[in-house]
Amino acid sequence: MSELTLTVMRLGFLAVLWLFVIVAVQVIRSDLFGTRVTQRGARREAARPQQAAARQAPAQPPQQRDRQGGGGRQRRNAPTKLVVTEGTLTGTTVALQGQTITLGRAHDSTIVLDDDYASSRHARIYPDQGGQWIVEDLGSTNGTYLDRSRLTTPTPIPLGAPIRIGKTVIELRK
Amino acid sequence: MSSTSNPSTHHTSTIGAIGAPSRRNTELALLVFAVVIPVFAYANVGLAIDGSVPSGLLSYGLGLGLLAGVAHLVVRKFAPYADPLLLPLATLLNGLGLVCIWRLDQSKLLQSLPNFFTAAPRQLLYTALGIALFAVVLIFLKDHRVLQRYTYISMFTALILLVLPLVPGLGANIYGAKIWINIPGLGSLQPGEFAKIALAVFFAGYLMVKRDALALASRRFMGLYLPRGRDLGPILVVWVISILILVFETDLGTSLLFFGMFVIMLYVATERTSWIVFGLLMSAAGAVGVGSVEPHVHQRVEAWLNPLHEWKLSRQGVYGHSEQSMEALWAFGSGGTLGSGWGQGHSDLIKFAANSDFILATFGEELGLAGIMAILIVYALIVERGVRTALAARDPFGKLLAVGLSGAFALQVFVVSGGVMGLIPLTGMTMPFMAYGGSSVLANWALIGILIRISDTARRPAPAPVSNPDAEMTQVVRP
C-alpha cells in the first residue's frame, strides 16, 4: 500500500471519529430543551406597546376583564395562544396546540415560574374532549385564581379571563 | 419583584410545544454511523498490514451491524422514549475494541507467543452474548423500581460475588491479583464486574431510605457539615470492606471502584460536601496504609513511581517484575499527536495483556492523542447521558441508581486509563467495552440496558389527564 493512501486513511479515520463525536454532541444540544423558545427580535419594537398595555392592565381591571370575559360564551372562537400579562415572564406566549401546559417552579414545567408564591407543580391547563380549555390547580400551597375566585375543581377558562398564580397573570387569547 | 419595577426583564419569547419526540430515528442514524466507523478501521488495518482489504470485512461488518440492529429494534419496541445516544456510543466503543483486538491478532510477534489464541472471534461471541443480555434486561425489566425490592438481596449477591475469588479451588490467582474465578468447562469469570451493578442497586435502595438521617443530623464546623458519629457507621463499614478487598484480593481497582461509587452516591443523596472530603481522606489513608504494608500492592506502587527501573529489573529476569507499564508509556509516546495509523504501530511489544488491560496503549500509538481524546470523550458522553438520565428521573431510587451506575462506569474508565497512562498505580481492571474479556462486555451491556430503561421511564411523556367524573358533577355553572 502506498504511503500516501495510508496517510490519507489515517487522517480520514481521525476526522470521521471526531465527526461522530461532534454529531453526538449536536444531538445532546438538540435534546436539552423540552420546549422550543423563539426570540422575536425583529418584532420586539412592535411588542413593546403591547407590554405597556399589559402593565397598565391591573390599574383598570374591571371593565376590561368584564368585556373580555364575555368572550367565554362564544366557545367556538377557540383560543390559539396563552399570554403571560403580568409577572417576570410578561410577554411570553405559548401556542395552544392541544397539549397540556404545566405551570410551576419545577424545571420540566412548560412555563417555569420563578416566584416564591408558586408551588413546584402549581397548575395545569389542558383541553377536554370538546376542545374547551380547562385550568386545574394541582394542590398548590397558595392557590390558583380565575378572576377573583380560588379554584377548587377543574374549571373551564373563558377567553381573556385572568388566571393568577402568585405574581404571574396569564390569559388565553385568540 | 414585580414586573413593573424592572421592564428590562420582559421576555419577548414564544414557547412552543414539541410533541414528545422519541428520538428513535436519531438513534438509528447514529447507530449506522457507529457501525461504519469500525468497518472503516477494519479495512484500514487490513490495507496497512497485508496491502489488501481483509477477507472477513463483510462478515465482521455484517455481524456488528446485525447485533446493533437487534439492539435498536429491542429499544424501539420496549423502551421507545429512551436516550438516543447511549446505544450508539456503546456500539462504537465495542466495535473499535473488536477491530483493535483483531489487529493485535494479526501481529507476528504475538502469534509467536506460547499462549496465543485468536481473540477477535471470541470477543464477537461475547459481544453477541452482551447484546442478548441487554435485550433480556430491557424485555424483562419493565420498570427499574422493581429492583428496589431486592435491595438487601443485591447486597448479599454483591458480597458473595466479591468474596468468590477468595474461595479455595474456585478462585484463580492470575498474575498477582485474585479477582478471577474458574468455572470448569466455561473458562474464567471476573465476578467484580457484575458486583458493581448489584452494589449500585443496593446503595441506591439503602441511601434512598437513610438519606434524610445522613443529610440533616449534622453540626456545622468550618463551613462543613460534620455528620454525627453514629451516622459514620455505613461509610466506615464500606471503607473496611474495600480495605479488606485490597488486602485479600490485592486489587486496587475493585477497591477504589467499590468505595468511590459509595461516596459519589452518598454525596448525591445527601448534598453534603463533607462526605466527599471524608471519602477522599479515608481512601487516601487506606491506599497509603495498605500500599506500604501489602507486598503485591507495594510493588505496583513502586512500578508506578519508577517504571524505567521496573523495566530494567524485568529485563534482567528478576521474578515478579513487569516491563509493561514502561512499554505502554513508550507506545503512547511514539504515537504522538496524530498516531502512526491503524496497523502500523508496535504496541504488540507489550506482549502479555496487550489486548485486554493495555488495549488503550494500542489506541494511543495508532490513533495518537487526537484519537485517544475522541475515545475518552465518547466515554465521557456515556457518563454524561447517565447523569442526565438521573437528573430527568422522577423517582429518587432511579436517580440514585443512574448516578451510581454512571459513576461506577466513570471510575472504571479513570482507574484503567489512569493506570495505563501512569497517572495512578496500575490495576487489573478492563476498559469497558473495548478490552478483551467476556465478563466485562456482558456486565457493561447490562449496565447500559438498565440506564436505557431508567431513561425511557424518565423521558416518557406524562399521560393525558383523565377527566374526573366527580369533577364533572360538581362543575361550576357556566355563564
Task: Explain briefly what this protein structure is.
Chain A is an alpha+beta fold. Chain A is built from three helices and twelve strands, in the order αβααβββββββββββ.
Structural key phrases:
heterodimer, A: 174 residues, alpha+beta, six-stranded antiparallel β-sheet, five-stranded mixed β-sheet, 3 helices, elongated, B: 479 residues, mainly alpha, three-stranded antiparallel β-sheet, two-stranded antiparallel sheet, 17 helices, 6% strand, globular, disordered N terminus
Describe the structure.
The complex is a heterodimer of chains A (174) and B (479). In chain A, the strands form two sheets. Chain A has a six-stranded antiparallel sheet with strand order 3-2-12-11-8-9, covered by helices on one side. A five-stranded mixed sheet of chain A has the order 5-4-6-7-10, with no helix packed on it. Chain A has helices at residues 3-31, 44-56, 61-69, and strands at 35-39, 81-86, 93-95, 101-104, 111-112, 123-127, 133-137, 145-146, 149-150, 155-156, 163-165, 168-173. Mean pLDDT of chain A is 76; it is low at 42-75. Chain A is an alpha+beta fold. Chain B has 479 residues and is mainly alpha-helical. The longest helix of chain B has 34 residues, at 359-392. Chain B starts with 12 loop residues before the first strand and ends in a 6-residue tail after the last helix. Chain B has a three-stranded antiparallel sheet, with no helix packed on it. Mean pLDDT of chain B is 83; it is low at 1-9. Chain B has 17 helices and six strands. The chains are: A alpha+beta (174), B mainly alpha (479). Strand 1 (35-39) of chain A pairs antiparallel with strand 1 (13-17) of chain B. Chain B: It is found in: Membrane. Chain B: Residues 460-479 are annotated as: Disordered. Chain B: Its main location: membrane. Chain B: Keywords: Cell shape, Membrane, Transmembrane, Transmembrane helix. Chain B: The chain crosses the membrane at residues 28-49, 55-74, 86-104, 124-141, 153-174, 194-209, 230-248, 254-270, 275-293, 358-382, 403-427, 433-452. Chain A: Residues 38-80 are annotated as: Disordered.
